[in-house]
Amino acid sequence: MSVSRRGFLQGLGVGRTAHASAFMAARGHEEYVAEAMEPQGGQGGRPMRPNLPPGVEAIRISSNENPLGPGKAAIDAILGKFPEANRYPFNSTPLDADLEILIAKLNAGKRENVVLGVGSQELLRNAARVFMSPTKHLVIPSPTYGDPAGFAQNALHYTLKSAPVSEKTLKTDLSVLLPLVKGAGLVYLCNPNNPTGLIVPKDEVKALLDGIPKTMPVLIDEAYHHFVDDPRYATSVPAVLEGRPVIIARTFSKIAALAGMRLGYAIAPANMIQQMRPYSMGSINALVKWGGVASLKDAAGQAEVKKKVMDLRKKTAADLEAYGYECLPSETNFFMVAIGREIQPVIQEFAAKKVAVGRPFPPMTKHMRVSVGTADEMARFMTAFKEIFPQKTRNTAAGV
């Protein structure tokens, strides 16, 4: 039996900012974000996808998926257990133990520090359920991955306070975020950040943890940590092992290419895991658990995925730079390019050429997020880009 290697599509949310600042006060920003957070055919207020023309299959470089598809080890594990699909997943206790113990072992923790989720999304939402309340708000950077903010605001009707990224560097600005922590129930940090692809260096994360109340829960989303090369970055798992109230959320959607099968996990102190576990759906697909075990054991496969994706990301960014368009120095499987135009009509221009690119991320509405696809897809993207945008000389790029 053979299975084609393909990625799976997962929509992402757009977060709403509730924090006033000069950088965030661009005309129309609040109206756009409020509109984007309204439910539009999916949970969490996900925006509608661009209207792609019929005919040749469009390339989807819009949702930060792994273009290479699941590895052979994961596919073989899933297909090998398919005859057992007649059994309910809650009868797979030994499998849960295998997966949770393996995750704990790989992170120097114990099984009591691990909980599984239907994608990391379920775990991000459960953290909001447990640690927020009508009187305890969520603190987030902006822009960032929007599902925690969207869920807290639209489903739970809780308050948000957001800190804009640095206007100069576009990095998460912890100096602006720290003052918002007073009275919060949860602090959310995506590292590396989505959509910018930029990291929060380990010394800055430590400064954040040292600068907030010792009992303040901090949710750190490490969905893209597998792709990081920057030595200034480090996972925050050691903070968990020190007993700090830190929750690390991870997913099998990116490096393992299991986005369509929905599997994630959280690592946290045992008492926080116990608080979150009752909110878990408890119905994770049994087959994806086997795929998850195989993926975690396939270190060589993950290294191969990282190299191929990073090589293509660097090549595409270099091509764009040579064409006169600056890219942010991403440490993920996507990047942002400064296009100098409002992104919304540009999305439709790409859609007309059967290329789906990332949605708007206010206030960075003159940047475009591009997920790394296959070599052929990135070549098609560059062709479309050059048809839509004129080449810039060094002087025009500098605004001279």
Describe the overall structure.
- The chain is an alpha/beta fold and 400 residues long.
- The protein folds into two domains: 29-69 and 300-389, Aspartate Aminotransferase, domain 1; 72-298, 3-Layer(aba) Sandwich (Aspartate Aminotransferase, domain 2).
- The chain contains 14 helices and eleven strands.
- The protein has helices at 29-36, 72-80, 93-106, 119-131, 147-155, 174-177, 202-211, 237-241, 270-276, 286-297, 299-322, 343-352, 375-388, 394-397; strands at 59-60, 114-117, 137-142, 160-164, 184-190, 218-221, 246-251, 264-267, 334-338, 355-356, 367-371.
- The strands form three sheets. It has a seven-stranded mixed sheet, with helices on both faces. The chain has a two-stranded parallel sheet with strand order 1-10.
- β5, α7 (202-211) and β6 (218-221) form a beta-alpha-beta unit.
- α3 packs parallel to α10 and α4 (119-131) packs across α5.
- The longest helix has 24 residues, at 299-322.
- The chain is globular, with a radius of gyration of 21 Å.
- The relative contact order is 0.18.
- Mean pLDDT is 84; it is low at 1-49.
